[in-house]
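May I ask for a single protein's sequence together with how it folds?
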Amino acid sequence: MQATLKQLLSQGADGATAISAPGRAPLSYAGLRTLVDETLSTLNALGVGRNDRVGIVLANGPEMATCYLACASGTTSAPLNPAYRADEFEFYLSDLNAKLLIVEQDSSSPAIEVAAKLGVRIADLVVPAGAPAGSFRLVPRKASAVAPAVQGGYGEPADVGMVLHTSGTTSRPKIVPLSVGNLFASAANIRTTLQFTPSDIGLNIMPLFHIHGLIAGVLAPISAGSQVFCTPGFNALKFFAWMDEAKPTWYTAVPTMHQAILQRAKGNMDVIARHPLRFLRSSSSSMPTQVIRELEEVFKAPLIEAYGMTEATHQMASNPLPPKARKPGAVGLPAGPEVEIMGDDGAILPAGEIGEIVIRGLNVTAGYENNEKANAEGFRNGWFRTGDQGSKDADGYLSLTGRLKEIINRGGEKISPREVDEILMDHPAVGQCVVFGMPHAKLGEEVAAVVVLKDGASATEREIQDFVARRAADYKVPKKILFMDEIPKGATGKLQRIGLAAKLGLA
């Protein structure tokens, strides 16, 4: 079988609903396949084809889902967070070497000005009045800027279907190229784990510039011919009204979303009773076991906790559906790739021993782009090193015990502390700084910083936070800034971000 997205999109019955959305007519599988064909023809006519980078800056919703599916099928899709500031767009669009940027017709995104400055062509996504959910056409902003047409069509398994940046421990986020084969394999892994069928309906509340939403929320259910109900993004106040409209059989979310839903569930028990879920899924950061228990009691359905990362095209391990055992506190069994625990000497460790979690398989990236150093550090003996520490029990269930990386995981958003360091160091009053993660009851971690001011300089916490907010998305802004006379260092005089929160009494 050809592991292409054309093959993946062929699974749904012509008349079955592929994409739905609040207050919109649904899009059938036949309509979705036609839309993808037509979009690829348009892109090819614009001179954009296989392995050409297409930046996508769209609001969450059905058109973001279908535009992603179309671009990933025959170009290299590069979904970007619409909340980025101009500086961030400039970094990502130039780092990607984007050939085209897709934005909404009436968008005022700073990405547009940045694209014009970088010479990246722009196409408007236009939704015809009364069109079914996810239906659109692409219109180039400047007809004169069109490149010669290319013979493109659908991508082959070895073509790059998507690129995402992942926060590195160095300042530069790393480009993770994911092949069409990676995307196909990961969708199949999740489909198998969650036993999707054409009768399933997923209520998608995850952002669609994030690996979790793109793969578990859209690609995996589409690969099973089931329906995806695309919301404009998470809103706890609207969740139960959407549930009534969508009649879902499942949803996937990060722990903070689940907790917000749980807070409103008591007043919506009638909705929950009307639309019994087959399961709930949680991923991207760890879920407190008591919250898992409460959600299962309220929804009378199993909560399936999974473990994923961008480099694995999302899912690596997952707790299984009943009747197999779910182990709260464990992230489950290997669910697609091989998952092992590696010792410092590179040997695979037996059950019960703690080491680094390593993976290999068809869903794992072949390596970072143009980054020999990261690849040399990231792979060992053919295994990809996750940077997470853990162990497997006698039954093969994986538990995470800590992190070997400095990346801050804020409710599923991964933040490079070095990136925020560099912004802070541009503030005229800042002499030295160190950014680190501090524990947070709901988000898991929050961004914090120690700042040493220059002699004679003054600045308040709010002034520094505002300075960062002008140059980085809100989730990267330190929520706590400690002003100190010197940067705390480890015994060897080395700056240590890991464990700094505990050392400073912020744990």
